[in-house]
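cache lookup: miss for this entity combination. No prior model stored, computing from scratch. Input as submitted by user K.M.:
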Amino acid sequence: MSNRDPKAVQTELSDRSTHETGRQLMFNPETGEIVVVRPNERVASPDAVVASSIADEGFFGPVPRGAR
Amino acid sequence: MNWSLEQRRRLAAERTFLAQYFPALRWVDPAGNTAIEGDLRTNAGNVYGVRVVLPPDFPDSQPDALICRPRPLPTLPGFSLHLTSAAMHTLEGDGQGNVRICHYSAERWAANISLYKVVMKVRFWLEAYEGHLRTGQSIDAFLKHMR
């Protein structure tokens, strides 16, 4: 499975939602793809930027009205 | 809506920055009801129409992030993308069939958060959405809840 395979990206998102994985999620603006990068792995595109922290800060989880 | 000089400066900086990373997004009505819209493509190659709508007091308040195409956005039986749902990281729909996704809450929003980060969250949400379709799990199985 390639590190840009959708399943690999989804698995990485799922894994890092519960624990530190040691991998990075990078965004390649040339292709619009998200790439999973292992430690010490070289990134193919010099324009790719680390986006892990944006996933790691989490997403707002709203409480439905009347559920409080 | 008339943007103040300070807001116009901020929007100009946002525009330059976003163009570097998401060149397919365009600015709509930059002097009025300003929004950013265009297509985002997931790693699977699927294309989604997205819109980020700026509130009049931007950047003091967070923008709305919407998935506009396909409409309706398909989901699996037993799930809804048009209700306020922590499991799906969605807010109540906008009444036009668009899906409003959760990114930053009002409590966690800060004026220095860039639109790039909001769009990147939309991009992650789309990967998680496709994970939901693939596995049958809710979207929060892929996206961490903000603390």
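stored under new cache key. The mean pLDDT of chain A is 89.
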